[in-house]
Amino acid sequence: MTSDAVRQAADLLRGHRESIDRLDAILVFTLAERFKHTQSVGVLKAQHGLPPSDPARESVQIARLERLAEEADLDPAFARKFLNFIISEVIRHHERHLENHSQGD
Asked: pTM of the prediction?
C-alpha cells in the first residue's frame, strides 16, 4: 500500500473508533438509566411481596428485543443473550431488595 492509502485507512480507522467510543458511552449511560428504573421496580416488588422474577414479562421482552434486532439487522440470538444477561442482573438486584425488605420487618 502506498503511504497515502495507509494514511487514508488510518483516518478511516480513527473515525470508526471514535464512533465506537461514543456508542459505548451511550450504551453505558443507557444501561445506567435502565437499571435506575429496574431498581425502583425491585423496591416496589419487595414492598408489596411480589416475586423478583416475572417470566411472562421476560418472555415478551425477549421476543420484542429479537424483533427489534431483526429490524436493526442485528443477530437476534445475540440480542436474546444480551437481554437474558441484563434480566439475570435485574432479578439478582430484585432478590437483594426482597432480602433487605424482609430483614427490615
From this structure: 0.79
> SS3 sequence, the chain?
CCHHHHHHHHHHHHHHHHHHHHHHHHHHHHHHHHHHHHHHHHHHHHHCCCCCCCHHHHHHHHHHHHHHHHHCCCCHHHHHHHHHHHHHHHHHHHHHHHHHHHHHC
Q: Write down all domains in the chain, each with its CATH number in brackets.
A: 3-104 (1.20.59.10)
pLDDT tens column, 8-65: 999 999 999 999 999 999 999 999 999 999 999 999 998 998 998 999 999 999 999 9
